[in-house]
Amino acid sequence: MSTIISIRNLHKRFGHLEVLKGIDLELQKGEVMVVIGPSGGGKSTMLRCINHLEKYEKGEIYFKDVLLHEKRVNMNEYRMKMGMVFQQFNLFPHRTVIDNLMLSPLKVKKMDPAEVKEKALNLLKRIGLSEKASAYPINLSGGQQQRVAISRALMMDPELMLFDEPTSALDPELVGEVLEVMKQLAREGMTMIVVTHEMGFAREVGHRMILIDDGLIVEEATPTDFFQNPKSERTKSFCGRFYRKSSRSVYRGAPAFCFVYPENREHDEPRADEGPYGDLFF
Ligand SMILES: Nc1ncnc2c1ncn2[C@@H]1O[C@H](COP(=O)(O)OP(=O)(O)OP(=O)(O)O)[C@@H](O)[C@H]1O
Ligand SMILES: [Mg+2]
């Protein structure tokens, strides 16, 4: 196995607010890591530090053997190796779908236009959006826009994909089509760090899960151990509260999973006959 990303003792603060308090992480080639945790815990900040959209005060981030913050490193070169997909799709609104895909390879990589176009059309075909090549983002559904955003990142042949809650801005019925593209990528062996609370996804394609709370990794485990045998009390209480909240949305047909608690359950304790967080449905 080869290590793609190695993070050591990463600290990041915004003014007086210490957001990351010593993150240590290793990601192997082909690995899918799912990151969960409460709002404000530092998940997005960690992703943004990895591709140096944020500077950090202390610690090291290596891409393979390269220490990224060293002066001699051309960070733009390394950013190309890391595709990033955000909650808000961030497509260029005044450009067509195919132009969105072609822009970076043409401008940044100076690739041959015919080759780039062929690659873009192939990617659009793969995500089932060939007929939208000439459309503008505003005329696409949220799910379609996010699939285009993923394809746009793939145009640069990244070695690592970073996803920051890619489905959380979508209407529930559009979540599945985006997750399907991500699952396909995972199955093809893409190395991925995915901030998401879609636990069906985590269980199906995740190799490892981490919970980030208050700037620290408080749990790291395989999805199976994470759900069935969490070590930290923080994981248990976060998941308990989180699942109870999401169990309501299943009635809108939303997520691919849900923990159902009795309506009148007053506290987080599970019954003796259920898993640590309730009855799990995927
Ligand atoms: N540019 C910034 N300037 C100042 N504070 C920031 C900035 N970006 C993030 N923060 C603060 O850093 C903390 C961590 O934010 P971050 O966005 O990493 O959390 P998160 O775990 O991704 O949360 P969420 O689940 O809500 O997306 C929060 O308190 C946030 O307000
Ligand atoms: Mg975030």
What do these coordinates show?
The chain has 282 residues and is of the alpha/beta class. The protein contains 9 helices and 12 strands. A 6-stranded mixed β-sheet has the order 6-7-8-3-9-10, sandwiched between helices. The chain has a 4-stranded antiparallel β-sheet with strand order 2-1-4-5, with helices on one face. Strands 11-12 form a two-stranded antiparallel ribbon. Helix 3 (97-107) crosses helix 4 (113-126). The longest helix is centred in the last third of the chain and has 17 residues, at 233-249. It starts with a strand and ends with a strand. The relative contact order is 0.14. Magnesium ion is lined by residues 43-44, 164.
Summary tags:
282 residues; 4-stranded antiparallel β-sheet; alpha/beta; disordered C terminus; binds magnesium ion; 9 helices; binds adenosine-5'-triphosphate
Concise account of the structure shown:
This protein is of the alpha/beta class.
Topology:
Elements: E1 3-14, E2 17-28, E3 32-36, H1 43-50, E4 58-63, E5 66-67, H2 75-79, E6 82-85, H3 97-107, H4 113-126, H5 142-154, E7 160-164, H6 172-187, E8 191-195, H7 199-205, E9 208-213, E10 216-221, H8 223-228, H9 233-249, E11 258-260, E12 279-281
Parallel strand pairs: 3-8, 3-9, 6-7, 7-8
Antiparallel strand pairs: 1-2, 1-4, 4-5, 9-10, 11-12
Helix pairs in contact: 3-4, 3-5, 5-6
This protein binds adenosine-5'-triphosphate (ATP) and magnesium ion (MG).
Adenosine-5'-triphosphate is lined by residues 14, 17, 19, 37, 39-45.
